[in-house]
What does this fold into?
Amino acid sequence: MSRAMPNVPATTDDHALIPMDYTSSKMRIASIVDETSDVKTFRLTFCDEQEGEAFDYRAGQFGLYSVFGAGEATFCIASSPTRKGYMECSVKRAGKVTGELHQCNVGDIVGFRGPYGNWFPIDLMKGKNLVFVGGGIGLAPLRSLIWNCLDLRDQFGEIAIVYGARSVSDLVYKEELETWRQMEDVSTVLTVDPGGETPEWEGEVGFVPTVLEEANPSADNAIVITCGPPIMIKFVMMSLEKLGFGHEGIYTTLENRMKCGIGKCGRCNVGNLYVCKDGPVFSYSQLQELPQEF
Amino acid sequence: MPTNKLYEGVSDWLQSAVETLSAAGMTVIAPTQGEPGVVNLTRVTSAEAIAERYDNTLLPLKGQFFPITETLLEFERCEDGDVEIQTEPLPAPDEVIVLGCRPCDAAAMGTMDKVFQWDYDDVRYRARRDRATLVAFACTTPSPECFCTSVGGSPHGDEGSDVLVFGLGGDDSGGRVLLKVNTDKGRQFIDRLGDRVRPASEGVQPPSPPELARRFDTDAVKAWLDEGFDSDFWQQMALSCLGCGACSFLCPTCHCFDIVDEATWNRGQRRRNWDCCSFSLFTLHASGHNPRPEQFSRCRQRIMHKFKYFPERFGRIACVGCGRCIRACAAGRSLAEVLTEVDARQKG
It folds into this structure.
């Protein structure tokens, strides 16, 4: 059966059933950062301190966030598990729940349940050179892993980050991009789509796949982690093939619509897999075996 | 005590069962006639309310365990900015006897159990399952849309039921019956009926099931589906689909759901509602991207899920051949015909 796939942490059948009543934990908004005109990053802390201390997750996992009265929505956890005491999520204003979230203020209470899903194979990444390729808000799940790796810097080889957005104003985590750019042991390439640059822009101008090819990272002993719009991922994969990367060493995270997050509601199914249980992290070779419905 | 034991019920066994079980504080759910021609499972306190002849209930049995809509939690925003959350308590543990579902609907619960009880255990579903005894009435006259025998079932199938009841007088249950005990729960049910049932006489056997020809072979269907994702068959077969979702809502194994908040001013509920993969909004991302953007891709998903993905994942087909999707389809579409065509393509 194709669901037993390599390189993905087991998520099923190897433990007792976990009772589930779909209730949410209360979290308080500790701070809000305006990333772009329509993306905000919320730092959240558990209202119940004990719950906060017990909370643990891995980079790549996601949760169901809610504004009571508007409903639940799925976002990845955008902060690193190495940073304790809080959790962050970056939300693009797009619909009902995200719109309500954007109306929230510091101190407001939101709901959260999770963490759910598998995670980036950080154990496999140890000792490897890492290439992160992100587009737009797709940097959010990568950011969790990037800080996770940077906080354990000596366990990994070279780290390269290629990130782009439609325009300069659409780049998220601007301060952190600058921090990464100035780190001597991280090679950071930033780009904006043609026409999205400003007179002050010092980065590249061009689409992410093109800029990635120009950056020409070595495929030797390397793992690629990519996330962005579906069309970007498609062309990034083609560029990576040109650069000689094998399909096994490329990981991405799928963002299918979900309601339950735990393999019941049937919404995120792709073939016989549940993105919420068998993913959201998949290797490129896994994705190629799936029906192209993501 | 061994199960699979046969008992005979005297002619007023049903009346007696409803009275005895109700008097013991149990909730008895049975098929009753509402609007003309519409039979559904409702709570009864007297056997007179029970429909005498019916092919099957309009709504599937699953709703007794996975309701059309249910509250998950209630919330209230307080003036100080806090939010009070009250998780919906579990359903009361009072025993529930379902008296008169059809064998296909009982078998369908095995499919539902797989979904609601893997990895995470859906506590409300389990509570409703644990408290219920399923007494199925064997089919005497399958309707023209029925195809249980094509998907591994039978009009007399006993999978999923605690007791299977065979009418001996030509009708379903009213007269003399034979009761076949399938489980411990079924044995407890028989014990409660006291002298209204007695062990069947030596040599008494259930009647033969009514004839129902097999229309397709699920192994052949699976083999074709394994290779047929990109076939142009899907565009053709889906042309008439209106995407109304009636097939899913009436399906005893469809289990997709939505979770929504319903609130007025400062208080409200988080609810779970049935949903359907045939709806275009089902998989629509906030970005506007839709993994299944066309109706044919959604029709394909529904069939692939039931006859390929679900068996690969959970080891069984997610269809029991009840025929409700065929009876309900406003466009006259037939799942059995589609699968017969798939079977023919595989063998052709």
Notes: The CA atoms of residues 237 and 338 of chain B lie 7 Å apart.
